[in-house]
Amino acid sequence: MDDRTEMIELEEIPAELRGVLDQVLNLGVTEEQFHLTRRSILDSIVTSELLGDLDAVRIAALGKSGVISQWLKLIGTLPPENRAPVSARFNRVRDEVQRALEKRKVELERAALDARLAGETLDMTLPADVPPTGTIHPVSQVMDELAEIFADLGFAVATGPEIEDDWYNFTALNIPETHPARAMHDTFYLAGEHEKPMVLRTHTSPVQIRAMQAAGGDKPVRIIAPGRTYRSDSDATHTPMFHQVEGLVIDKGITLGHLKWTLETFLKAFFERDDIVLRLRPSYFPFTEPSAEVDVGFSIVNGKRVIGGSGGGNGGGWMEVLGSGMVHRSVIEAGGYDPNEWQGFAFGCGIDRLAMLKYGMDDLRAFFDGDVRWLKHYGFSGLDVPTLSGGVGA
Q1: Is this prediction's pTM over 0.70?
Q2: What average pLDDT score do residues 351-359 get?
Q3: Which residues on neighbouring strands pair with residue 73, listed in sequence order?
């Protein structure tokens, strides 16, 4: 027997059934011809060199009109007492052919893969394909830059709830009942029954009160509070939801000079320029006294406004970037501190505005459109981690 076919030995059919088998094998197909057909099928499987050829053998043997399928259909024409041994014989042949087909298919697929691998080469000197990647939103990047800068100045990052009650958002910050900020057209009030009026916070200043309360009224506080805030406003430079960062220092012996130095150091590090010049203008905020608007000088370079310079010269000028002041006595008291012993300063600005100034964006609404093209252009790589040594805007 040819070893390649791995043919199994079939028991000889009993002599008394051979005539029946010859009859089943379609009038004249003898036992010898049955074995020859079986062997021919198995040899055709082994010698198939292509998957297409192998499939043709499968169809000819086991397909709907295949020879083995036809044999199995004829079993029903036998007398009941003769069906079992003939059926077992045909089923063994069918199983043998199926195993041979599966084995040869695996061999041909492996050979095809080996041939493909042998014919294809990989040039390791070519640059690798860069898969699509997301980008860090400019607001998230600037938040990280702020945290890095102020961490170097000894500030911690504090957070608070975005849904605040009226006391934290207004009263504790010395905002009177008649102040326009409390009006419905400026503030988002939450409907429903609440012990106190609840609002979407209009600034991150409530975090200042919570930070002072957490400190217990007897320890210095030095925090920044970045986060989302909400006001009923919408145009090219305002959106109903925007981002703010506020800073707070509470300690003994704090003066306006500490505030100016802190802001100057921060802005120089953020814009990565040593020629930053500040101008503090008297202003009014309910939670600080005295209060000051902070302007930064800018110059015109190649028709574009660039932060830096003395302000007012070479076509430049001053741009407002921050609000600041010494913390009001009432606010210190609301935070649990004695205003006769403790002083402090606070400041705040829009993170979105800082991003616009630093990275050259001119429409705040694009920050929240979710346009992938805009994000790809203005976004940052996940590896662009801000550091003071490498540059916060690296």
Answers
A1: no
A2: 89
A3: none
Instruction: Collect all residues with Cβ–Cβ distance below 8 Å to 302 and sequence separation of at least 6.
Output: none
- Asked if 386 and 392 touch (Cβ cutoff 8 Å), the reply is yes
CB 183 within 8 A of CB 189: no
Closest C-alpha among 216, 217, 215, 209 to residue 340: 217
Q: How far is CA 139 from CA 27, 135, 269, 354, in A?
A: 87, 12, 17, 9
pLDDT in tens, 235-271: 655 678 889 999 999 999 999 999 999 999 999 999 9
Task: Sketch out the chain's domains with CATH numbers.
Answer: 3-119 (no CATH), 138-374 (3.30.930.10)
Q: What angle do CA 355, 356, 358 make, to 5 degrees?
A: 65
CA distances 99 to 6, 46, 47, 109, 238, Å, are 10, 12, 15, 16, 73
- Cα–Cα distances in angstroms (integers) from residue 184 to residues 7, 12, 215, in the given order: 91, 100, 33
- In whole angstroms, give the CA distance from residue 284 to residue 292: 7
The pLDDT value recorded for residue 185 is 63
341: which DSSP letter? Answer: T
What is the DSSP pairing of strand 288-301 with strand 304-307?
antiparallel
* Structure confidence by residue, pLDDT tens digits, 108-134: 999 988 888 888 777 778 888 878 888
Q: Is the pLDDT of residue 2 over 50?
A: no
Give the integer Cα–Cα distance in Å for 295 and 311. Answer: 9
10 Å CB burial of residue 148 (0-12, 13-18, 19+) is middle
In three state form, how does the secondary structure of 2-39 look? CHHHCCCCCCCCCHHHHHHHHHHCCCCCCHHHHHHHHH
Rounded to 10 degrees, the C-alpha dihedral 372/149/216/284 comes to -80
